[in-house]
Amino acid sequence: MRILVIDDDRKITAALRRGLTYNGFEVDVANAGAEGLARARASKPDLVVLDILMPGLNGLDVTRQLREDSDVPILMLTARDALEDRVLGLETGADDYLVKPFAFAELLARIRALLRRRQAEQPIVLQFEDLELDTATHEARRRGHPIALTAKEYELLEMFLRNPRRVLTREQILERVWGFDSEVDTHVLEVYVGYLRQKLEAGGAPRVIQTVRGVGYMLREPSAG
User: Fold this and answer.
1) CA 76 distance to own-chain centroid
2) Does residue 192 share a domain with residue 131?
3) Distances (CA, A) of 133 to 38, 52, 129, 196, 217
4) Is the Cβ–Cβ distance between 58 and 147 less than 8 Å?
5) Which residues face 4 on adjacent strands?
6) Pair 100, 165 in one domain
């Protein structure tokens, strides 16, 4: 994940670069509003940490202009803690607001929360070998051919695609797909896995949902069987 830090205080940008890099992020910095706006538009970061009080183009101006063509999450930093200042920042287009001085642990937690929210909002296409599943439209394809799925078959396939090459126990699958309080037994699971296999293997496609005897199932390459 790439984070852009925009702040005219070089001590702050240096400290944030060190801390965020240590926590696994790629970090770019800018020490002026105009520079930061240009970097944001050019590099397309996953999140922007932005100070409000900067000479020239301030943080509010940067946010307004960035919102014209980007929905990147923005975490605003400011020494102003009045309610009207926080409201103005959020109404301008920021996603969150942190008052200086702040603990780095809180900044990190807010960044991670914004990135999780961002990921949850974005539909993704899960892929494995020649199999793909669009989580926005619930459309499945194999070798480019559409596969019609029931609701339970979709949930089963999604679980397998989110856990490729990992053994999933029967209990794990039943809890996830049918619910913790479900009285469905393993026979029903075997029936639905059979239905799903028939659809995935239509036209002679090789089997990718493998049985792990005495345990459960695994999505893996046909050659791995």
Assistant:
1) 21
2) yes
3) 36, 42, 12, 13, 19
4) no
5) 28, 48
6) no
Continuous segment of H or E residues that includes residue 43: helix 33-43
Which of residues 75, 104, 121 is at a domain's end?
A: 121
103-129: b (≥16 Cβ within 10 Å) or e: eeeebbebbeebbeebeeeeeeebebe
Identify the DSSP state of 117: H
Checking DSSP bridges between strand 216-219 and strand 168-169, what pairing results, if any?
antiparallel
The upper half-sphere exposure of residue 135, i.e. CA atoms within 13 Å in the direction of its Cβ, equals 16
**Helix %, strand %, coil % of the chain (to 5):** 45, 20, 35
51 C-beta neighbours (distance < 10 Å), count? 23
193: which 2 tokens? 């896995």
Query: Which of 183, 190, 124 minimizes the C-alpha distance to 158?
Result: 124
Does 111 share its domain with 129?
no
Please give the share of the chain, as a percent, with pLDDT higher than 90: 66
- The residue among 91, 121, 151 that closes a domain is 121
Domain count, the chain: 2
Collapse the DSSP code of 150 into the 3-class scheme (helix H, G, I; strand E, B; otherwise coil) and give the result. Answer: coil
Does 78 share its domain with 138?
A: no
pLDDT digits (tens, 9 = 90+) for 48-89: 999 998 999 999 999 999 998 888 999 999 887 777 777 888
pTM of structure: 0.56
Whether residue 131 is found in the same domain as residue 191: yes
List phi, psi (to 5°) of 149. Answer: -120, 145
- If asked whether residues 98 and 130 sit together in one domain, one would say no
Domain span at residue 159? 125-224
Q: Could you tell me the sign of the dihedral formed by the alpha carbons of 146, 152, 153, 157, in that order?
A: positive
